[in-house]
Write a structure and sequence with these properties.
96 residues; alpha+beta; Pemi-like Protein 1, Chain: D; two-stranded antiparallel sheet; two-stranded antiparallel ribbon; 3 helices
Length: 96
């Protein structure tokens, strides 16, 4: 058998170990770097019909862009008809 190149991460045999009451697989750091994952990342696992697994990194959550959100909110508010002030109605009907 030929020696595997340690930088080849296209196909790997990984060992399963115990981690508390669960089983875990360790990923070589080079593979983790190539996938863009780090400690705390979430991986998506699918079991295929032939009992193989497909593992892929979960896409990163979109960063909240306050300026974009404000622009969308203003655009939405511009489409809404104006109505009488609720505060004015409450003040006018208040009993003192």
């Amino acid at each position: 058998m030929g020696k595997r190149d340690s930088t080849d991460t296209a196909a790997l045999d990984l060992n399963v170990g115990r981690w508390g009451n669960s089983l875990a697989v360790r990923l070589p750091i080079e593979l983790a770097r190539q996938l863009g994952i780090a400690e705390g990342s979430t991986l998506h696992v699918e079991r295929n019909n032939d009992n193989t697994l497909t593992i892929s990194p979960r896409p990163m959550k979109k960063v909240f862009d306050q300026a974009q959100w404000l622009a969308q909110a203003r655009q939405h508010l511009a489409t809404m008809p104006s109505s009488p002030s609720v505060m004015r109605e409450m003040r006018d009907s208040a009993r003192y």
